[in-house]
Each structure stands twice: as structure tokens, then as C-alpha cells.
Design a protein that fits this description.
Length: about 375
């Protein structure tokens, strides 16, 4: 996009399950450089083949009006993969996070082909990028209504897979390691009325907690804003993310500065509506709810949707028709001159304590920014 071109900007933020991010021709390394402790916590190349996107968020920013919104796509959403190499060993009917096995470009093409959402840029950030960013901010403040932990007993032996363990309730400072454990927790439990209770919302609950962490990070960045600290933050995470070649460090910095006063309650967060199902090909999957998803995507995009090439599929592999109705919401265009990538912006300026219409409510047992 050339300077002076006015159009909405959509960015893909992928929380990649990776331990070192290096850009090499046509390849994104997934687990190079792990320590023994990191391999035990996150898995190693010997135990986990390929790579998957742990979190998929699309961020729509409009610097001209100072607005922003985000759309989270559950990682198990059942789709037809696009942009995969000819020699891929993956079935084309698969969970959307499998597209990342071929790198961010394939994930971008799958999203565009499946949902008609144009993606301008991508940023893939690894686990340690979140740790480093939270630590660079001096920690984030979160209020835990109850003690919480991660507890998985599905294999006959109980484990704390993510390392989450907050033994006391109340507002407290969460460091990078604790924020990462909270964002990764897939077996979230909270202690109430003398017993440990499990979060029944599965991946949706995890998406919501990740959004709340981003919100808390935004609040902390806003309250402690300093251009020198901003530069320090970028320096601390530069080795923890990959981006498309069209984005520069100056783009990141300019958008972070533009949104440094963005309120923690100003960003509307959407979660793509899905329902659980079982596929003979991919096992447990999330199937898109067509009416609710169509309305939500239309509201998120305004009038900038593009044609859908390979619609999402149901548990039997049959296409699900999405109709993107005309929206009555007028959204101002974004200036390309102010464009910057989403992940740096999200960590610094996005927050999601306000859920968009139609999004599932945040459970009362989840921690909130404080």
C-alpha cells in the first residue's frame, strides 16, 4: 500500500507455539534453541512434530478514527486448508491451526479463503514474546476472584501443564511467566466454596483470558507510557516474533505511539461463533455457526469483505454457507501512512474488556485487569 492510500487495515496476530523465531527462506523454525526446562514445559521437536498456531487473532485498526477491534478464531475451527505445499502430509479438511504447519502465509490464505477477511499483514509471536513483553512493562495487574491453577488428569496422572498456580485471590502483579501460564491454561480450575471447579468453556475460555491479559497489558502501558520504555519494550521482544517483510520497526513504533492512550475498555473483542463436533478425519473440532458467524464477521469488517472461496465445513466435510449481510455501521478508512503491525500494537495498546455484541460473556471466575 502506498502512502496516501486509504483503506481499512486488517492484521493477523498469531500466538505461535514456538520457542525460537528466525526468518529463513520459506521456513519458520518451531522449536530450535529450547532449553531442557522449556522443552519439558512446551514440548520438544522429538515429542511434537510440525507447528501449530496456538492463538489466532485478527486485529482491525483505524488510525484515522483511533478505533480498533479484534476477532479471535478458535484453533480447532474446521476448515479446508489453503496455500499448503504440494507435498504436505496434512489432510485438506483440518483444524485451522494446522495451516500454520506451512507457515503464516498458509494461515493467512486459509483465513482469507474461508471467511472473506482480507489480511494486510501478519505477526507471529512465540511464547516468550508474551513473557518478555509483560516483564518489560514491569508486570501487569490482575484481580483474581478465586485461587486458580491448571490441572489435567485426563491421562490418569494429574499434571499442571501450563504451570498456572495463583494461590490467593485479589488484585496482584502478574509477571511474564505467570501471564504466559494463565494464557496457555487449557485445564483452568478455580477454588470456590471449598472445592476446585473446572472451567467448562474450553478453548473459548482460554481465548477470553488471553484477551483479558492483553487488556491488562494495555492498561499498564497506558499508565506508564514513556517513549523510552516503548523502545525498550520493542527491543525486548524483537527476537520473539516474525512478521511479513512489508512491515518495519518504524511502522510498529508509529502505531504504538498512535494508540498509547487507547483505553482498556475501548477495544471490542469478537470470538467466532462455533459449536463442538466430532469429525472422522480430524477428531474433536469446532464447527462454525453460519448465521451468527456471518453477522459477526459483517459487523467486524464493515463493508470490506472479499469473496469466500472455500467456506468453512461441518463435521462431515460439507461446506457451510456464510452470507455477509450489508452493514449499516459506517467505519472510517485507515491511513496507510499510519499503518503498523498488530502484534506490537496489541501488546501495547489493545484491550478487550469490552466484548462485542454477540460475543460470549466473560465468566465471573476469570481474572480482570485491576
Amino acid at each position: 500500500m502506498g502512502q496516501g492510500c486509504l483503506q481499512p487495515l486488517h492484521h493477523l496476530c498469531g500466538g505461535a507455539r514456538r520457542t525460537a523465531v528466525q526468518r529463513a527462506p520459506d521456513r519458520f523454525h518451531s522449536r530450535a534453541g529450547e532449553t531442557a526446562a522449556e522443552a519439558q514445559q512446551f514440548g520438544s521437536a522429538a515429542t511434537t512434530s510440525g507447528q501449530r498456531s496456538d492463538t489466532i487473532k485478527i486485529v482491525r485498526v483505524d488510525p484515522a478514527s483511533g478505533t480498533a477491534s479484534s476477532l479471535s478464531i478458535p484453533r480447532d475451527t474446521y476448515v479446508t486448508l489453503s496455500g499448503m505445499p504440494a507435498n504436505t502430509q496434512l489432510d485438506s479438511h483440518n483444524k485451522i491451526n494446522a495451516a500454520f504447519d506451512a507457515g503464516p502465509d498458509a494461515l493467512v490464505r486459509t483465513i482469507e479463503s474461508t471467511f472473506g477477511i482480507p489480511i494486510s499483514h501478519f505477526i507471529a509471536i512465540n511464547f516468550f514474546g508474551l513473557q518478555d513483553a509483560v516483564n518489560a512493562l514491569g508486570g501487569i495487574n490482575m484481580d483474581f476472584p478465586y485461587p486458580v491453577r491448571d490441572r489435567d488428569c485426563s491421562g490418569g496422572v494429574c499434571n499442571n501443564n501450563s504451570g498456572l498456580n495463583v494461590p490467593t485471590a485479589g488484585c496482584q502483579t502478574v509477571n511474564g511467566t505467570e501471564a504466559l501460564a494463565l494464557s496457555r491454561s487449557r485445564y483452568f480450575q478455580y477454588y470456590a466454596n471449598g472445592q476446585w471447579l473446572s472451567d467448562p468453556t474450553s478453548d473459548i475460555g482460554r481465548i477470553q483470558r488471553q484477551n483479558l491479559i492483553i487488556s491488562a497489558a494495555q492498561d499498564k502501558a497506558k499508565s506508564t507510557y514513556d517513549p523510552l520504555k516503548l523502545n525498550s519494550l520493542f527491543s525486548s521482544v524483537v527476537h520473539d516474533f516474525s512478521k511479513d517483510d512489508a512491515l518495519s520497526a518504524g511502522d510498529l513504533f508509529s502505531l504504538a505511539e498512535r494508540y498509547h492512550a487507547f483505553s482498556g475498555s475501548s477495544l471490542q473483542s469478537y470470538v467466532l461463533p462455533t459449536t463442538g463436533a466430532t469429525s472422522a478425519v480430524a477428531g474433536d473440532v469446532e464447527v462454525v455457526q453460519p448465521a451468527a458467524a456471518s453477522a459477526m464477521i459483517a459487523q467486524f469488517l464493515g463493508n470490506s469483505a472479499q469473496p469466500i472461496v472455500t467456506p468453512p465445513i461441518d463435521a462431515y466435510g460439507d461446506p457451510i454457507a456464510l452470507q455477509l449481510p450489508a452493514t449499516t455501521t459506517t467505519q472510517a478508512p485507515a491511513s496507510a501512512a499510519s499503518a503498523a503491525p498488530p502484534q506490537g500494537r496489541a501488546l501495547l495498546t489493545a484491550s478487550v474488556s469490552t466484548t462485542a455484541p454477540g460475543a460470549p460473556p466473560i465468566p465471573s471466575y476469570d481474572p480482570r485487569p485491576c
